[in-house]
Amino acid sequence: MEAEAHAVPLTEMAFVILMAIALGLGLMRLKQPPLVGFILAGVVLGPTGFGLIGNSDSVTALAEMGVLMLLFFIGMELSLRAFIISLKPAVLVATGQLAVALGIGLTLAWATGAGMAEGLIFGFIIGLSSTVVAMKMLDDMDELRGDAGRIAIAVLIAQDIAVVPMLIIVSALGGQDAGLFAVAAKVALAVGFLAWLLWWLGRRGKLRAPFAAQIADNVEILALGAMGVCFGAAALSGVLGLSPAYGAFVGGIVVGNSTLRARIIPVIEPIQSVLVVVFFLSIGLLFDLSYIWNNLWVVLGAALVVIAAKTLLNVFLLRATGHDRNTALIGGLSMAQIGEFSFVLAAAGFSAGALGQDGYRLAIAVTAISLLVSPAWMSIMRRIEDVAAKGFSSYREALSEAYAGEIENVGEGLWWMRARYRAGRMTLRKWRVRRAQEKAAKSAAAQEVAEPAAGTVQDPDKPETEAATDKERSAAP
To answer: Could you say which protein family the record assigns here (predicted)?
Structure first.
């Protein structure tokens, strides 16, 4: 009975993993980021798809752990000097993003007749970008450690710090008590502690971890210790009323400036990768396919407008802060989607009564669509930029050049399918011929056995000499 109870979850888990691998490989074959395949796996197997996996608390918890581990990992690999240089333009970019997003949100609320509270919440939601998706795209492009990656990380960390006052304001819009002094104190604490930590780490050398010599070669202790620092710092940050992601990032900075950095990174990287895949699967689980289908054009239109507007705004702000064209394009495209913390803001506004049910479902749908479309949007925009720089004479020639790899892969795939189809037909034809030959051989053998038996049958009442005489008579002309 116990084996039967565990058989179904294990089967579902194996099927989910195989589906994620298959879709990830398929997207890689089409030269697209595999994370889109992971999101699609969640959509296909989620509650509104085939219903194989549900939007359970365990999946949500693993997804949140993936976000924390990713920020912890980024903090470990961060260059302090480059991050400090990027902080000032990052704050300016994040402030500009939030100001424009609030203007858009309030304008939408005025145009649709919604209240100012919903306009503010929509502005907060639009103003945030996804740390996980942006970092994963930049890492896949080998840009995470370049100029675009450094400025994107700094902007996203500034946004994560801004989530704290956003959550407090959203709660206040629903009637919950939240003073202005408390908001200012928490933001000042987050910014002040990060500034002090960067100053302190910059003045001294590598930190020596306790028992470093004893645990340096122990993989299990290194993994558990790193995860303990990550989740412990995140929990402490949450207790202080700050974002858990902020705490995980700060914990990563501390570990990254210790003598065990080179030992810990290869140990926790596989764990972080698995948890990040779970995060992308959880994004797919949030897709309400029935709601999206019933409001298809509204959801798709809103998602595309938000992505395009954020791209233009990001590129403009990055250029205005002194970054070159390529850095501004890559950094702006990487932050074009709506962030995962927007789910938290939407849920907080809905539970506080400041956001209606229709607004909540629209915010969730648009956020999920933007996360799904963002990698493909980045790929398309970069190719358009490359094509525009080459100056082709016709759109057909430009598209052929931009998607030469995909066209070649699709052509190879169609050729492979035709070859397998022809081989299958030939094999089936040979099998049918062989079966027909075997049947004919069996029939002939059966006839050969039956004819001699029929010729030796005698009348039991006749003697043997009469039977022979009858044969001779029948044979005579």
So the answer is: Belongs to the monovalent cation:proton antiporter 2 (CPA2) transporter (TC 2.A.37) family.
